[in-house]
Backbone:
């Protein structure tokens, strides 16, 4: 069973940058696509970014250009770097894993396609 643990959240100011990490254990990271999702109070879970086993990356429109997802299979880590943060980015950020390799990339945008989740890390951006 693959397990995920996020780290790197915290309180930052608008305009700051933040880097989140997702540590994968129990299985080899190379076998999984990893997605980052976020959820703010009272709002639905929202796709942030994903990286496939091959390294192909996907980004939400709201964060494209302000975020970078990367993976280090040797260290079993996936990173999400976010720049120019705004209060609207305040949410709990979670990483999730799926062993699937979809032909169509849009499947990676759906949280329902991921079977394993971390506990989440809180990101709070003050104005």
Residues:
């Amino acid at each position: 069973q693959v397990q995920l643990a996020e780290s790197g959240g915290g309180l930052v100011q608008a305009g700051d940058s933040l880097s989140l990490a997702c540590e994968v254990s129990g299985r080899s990271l190379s076998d999984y696509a990893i997605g980052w999702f976020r959820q703010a109070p009272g709002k639905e879970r929202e796709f942030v970014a994903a990286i496939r086993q091959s390294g192909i990356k996907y980004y939400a429109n709201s964060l494209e250009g302000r975020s970078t997802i990367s993976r280090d299979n040797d260290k079993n880590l996936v990173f999400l770097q976010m720049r120019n943060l705004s209060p609207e980015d305040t949410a709990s950020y979670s990483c999730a894993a799926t062993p699937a390799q979809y032909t169509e990339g849009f499947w990676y945008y759906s949280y329902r396609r991921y079977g394993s989740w971390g506990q989440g890390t809180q990101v709070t951006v003050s104005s």
Summary: The longest strand covers residues 18-25.
